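Action item from last meeting closed. Structure (710 res):
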């Protein structure tokens, strides 16, 4: 007998949260209903067909796929799983038990075993739970009788009479195995899912699953360590029995732990109530402060209103006195009736002054008080921002740090961050950024929520500096803000191109990668043979390569990396009308004095060499950046040599006929000069000896995920 009570948790499918129905054993040893496995795989297919749209994540009413599962679906789709592929591919399945992506192999669901033992236990539980519900005979005429036994060979239930009829004495059916009434019929022999006609008779200790002899001979378990089924049965049963005995012997310890956990539950309840009270008190204090401020503001407005009303009311009464037979005018009319000159003069003098003032006020009418209350507008913008950031601060949540080396500012901004402890303790991150502007005193942060540790931003202005900061959230708890990092965007829109493998490309000396984003000079036998023919000096021509796209107008920027081991690299631009001259220039050599020296070192040969060049280039090599020798450049050669940046950029402004060379990591201009933009301009590169150039890859929405996969 099996103790059924208390084992419900072990009999529930983690996908549908119902009792198992035909459970399958996954390679991770978790069990999932056969129907649930199919529905999750169908959800994968729907998600792949719909591009991972949210409309497909509720494809089945039986199961609900969580957000984390949908993230894993998207990740599997990105990994390259395709339908109708001619080459067999592995099937990935997100196990709802361990939340990991499990490889089901090429056979997928067909390569999984049914867990008949678990089915039997579930059936016993069902029978114990529905003891009052009888299993009826499958062969009785209506009304059917209650069954008394079930035949495991026929997979049917019978009453006594029907069993005798269908299993007569002396026949083969009389030898069938029968048990008590059940709805769980399991095969007598467990067959191999990969070789359906073979029974399993061995156990693979590596994959921890039963296999047949064909699996061992030439299948996927050929090189695995296997043992006989009886040995595996005996070994596993002994281990399981010992473990169960150990747990039973520790029953008192388990009960003590349960008691401790019960106390922790109560303590958690008490502490949560205390935390709620403290939070309520904090907000009550804010309410009190706001109420005080509100009352003070309303009192000030009320006082100002009363004063203004008094002034306006007095002005109304004053002007009412100017009406005929009213107030001052009526009094003046009565004074005019006085006939005694001395008495009239005595009264009229003061009255005349009042009449004159009334006349002047009538000519320049002005209300005695303002009707607007603009001075009493309460500015709460800053307070709203502060209250918006109001949350629980915890020292346990690590402060993220923006990684400036991994962050990039190119066609888009890629901002990456990490936690000092290398642990993802936060559930979600909030990235804030704002443009640095000296004119604007107020700072308005733009906010975006991120589930990972990187974010691609595409709404930044060109040639601008931005400040970035990030903080982590775990529920209602947030970390403090990270240190602000300032990054600068490129000075112009990013220009995209590839290396041209046709125009002047020398495949004997240069080697392109398949994507045409990297070029490397090969100092092989052709270079040695060329040098062997030279008896005086060592003059070797540069190997040029240009971009496959030109620029006719506007301002553009592109970036690239030069390998640190590179001996000599020249970078710049060339107009279309001088490309032919570039690839056939006999003076373009490693030494400016290619022709015979004039006999003095005045530098006139250098001047001739620079003026004769068909393109504008700067020299790089040996981890150095060489500023060209121009009248505006420093005379000291050492001051014209700079460390080679990890990433270089070129900004071409066709409208101003100028080209600039930048440290693309800091977006700082290292050198700028005039350039002839008479034709279509092409990016130009020259390499000699061991050297390599890699074009900067454009930032896309999936850039970080792509490099993480690599």
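Sequence:
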């Amino acid at each position: 007998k099996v103790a059924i009570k208390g084992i419900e948790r072990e009999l529930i499918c983690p996908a549908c949260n119902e009792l198992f129905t035909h459970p399958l054993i996954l390679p991770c040893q978790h069990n999932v209903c056969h129907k649930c496995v199919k529905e999750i795989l169908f959800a994968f297919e729907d998600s792949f067909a719909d591009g991972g749209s949210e409309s497909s994540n509720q494809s089945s009413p039986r199961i609900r796929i969580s957000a984390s599962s949908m993230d894993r679906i998207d990740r599997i789709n990105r990994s390259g799983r395709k339908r109708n592929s001619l080459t067999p591919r592995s099937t990935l399945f997100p196990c709802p038990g361990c939340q990991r992506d499990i490889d089901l192999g090429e056979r997928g669901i067909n390569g999984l075993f049914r867990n008949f033992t678990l089915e039997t236990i579930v059936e016993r539980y069902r029978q114990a739970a529905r003891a009052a519900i009888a299993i009826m005979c499958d062969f009785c005429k209506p009304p059917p009788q209650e069954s008394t036994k079930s035949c495991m060979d026929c997979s049917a239930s019978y009453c006594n009479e029907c069993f005798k009829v269908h299993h007569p004495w002396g026949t083969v059916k009389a030898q069938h195995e029968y048990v008590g009434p059940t709805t769980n019929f399991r095969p007598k022999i467990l067959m191999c899912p990969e070789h359906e006609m073979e029974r399993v008779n061995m156990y693979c200790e590596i994959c921890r699953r039963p296999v047949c002899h064909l699996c061992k001979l030439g299948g996927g378990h050929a090189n695995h360590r296997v043992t006989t089924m009886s040995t595996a049965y005996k070994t596993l049963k002994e281990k399981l029995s010992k473990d169960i005995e150990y747990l039973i012997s520790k029953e008192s310890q388990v009960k003590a732990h349960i008691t401790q956990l019960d106390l922790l539950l109560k303590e958690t309840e008490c502490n949560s109530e205390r935390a709620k009270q403290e939070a309520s008190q904090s907000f009550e204090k804010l309410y009190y402060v706001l109420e005080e401020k509100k009352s003070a503001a309303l009192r000030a407005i009320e006082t100002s209103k009363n004063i203004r009303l008094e002034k306006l009311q007095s002005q109304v009464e004053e002007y009412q006195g100017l009406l005929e037979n009213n107030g001052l005018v009526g009094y003046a009319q009565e004074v005019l009736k006085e006939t005694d000159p001395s008495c009239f003069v005595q009264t009229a003098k003061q009255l005349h002054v009042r009449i004159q003032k009334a006349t002047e006020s009538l000519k320049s009418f002005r209300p005695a008080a303002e009707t607007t209350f603009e001075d009493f507008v309460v500015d709460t913008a800053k307070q709203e921002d502060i209250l918006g950031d109001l949350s629980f601060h915890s020292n346990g949540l690590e402060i993220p740090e923006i990684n400036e080396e991994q962050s990039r500012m190119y066609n888009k901004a890629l901002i990456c961050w990490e936690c000092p402890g290398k642990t993802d303790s936060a559930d979600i991150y909030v990235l804030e950024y704002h443009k640095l502007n000296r004119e604007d005193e107020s700072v308005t942060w733009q906010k975006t929520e991120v589930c990972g540790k990187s974010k691609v931003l595409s709404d930044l202005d060109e040639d601008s500096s931005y400040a970035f900061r990030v903080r982590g959230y775990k529920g209602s708890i947030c970390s403090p803000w990270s240190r602000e990092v300032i990054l600068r965007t490129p000075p112009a829109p990013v220009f995209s191109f590839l290396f041209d493998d046709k125009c002047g490309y020398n495949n004997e000396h240069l080697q392109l990668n398949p994507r045409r984003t990297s070029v490397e000079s090969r100092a092989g036998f052709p270079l040695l043979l060329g040098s062997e023919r030279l008896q005086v000096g060592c003059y070797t021509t540069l190997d040029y390569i240009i971009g496959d796209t030109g620029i006719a107008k506007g301002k553009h920027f592109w970036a690239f990396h030069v390998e640190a081991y590179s001996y000599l690299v020249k970078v710049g631009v060339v107009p279309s009308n001088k490309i032919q001259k570039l690839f056939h220039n006999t003076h373009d050599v490693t030494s400016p004095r290619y022709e015979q020296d004039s006999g003095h070192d005045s530098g006139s040969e250098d001047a001739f060499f620079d003026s004769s060049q068909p393109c504008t280039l700067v020299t790089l090599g040996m981890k150095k950046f060489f500023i060209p020798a121009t009248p505006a450049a420093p005379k000291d050669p050492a001051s014209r040599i700079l460390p080679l940046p990890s990433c270089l950029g070129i900004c071409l402004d066709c409208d101003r006929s100028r080209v600039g060379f930048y440290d693309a990591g800091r977006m700082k201009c290292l050198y700028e000069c005039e350039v002839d933009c008479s034709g279509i301009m092409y990016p130009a590169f020259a390499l000699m000896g061991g050297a390599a150039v890699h074009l900067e890859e454009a930032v896309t929405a999936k850039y970080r995920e792509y490099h993480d996969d690599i």
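Note appended to the action item: The chain is about 30% helix and 20% strand.
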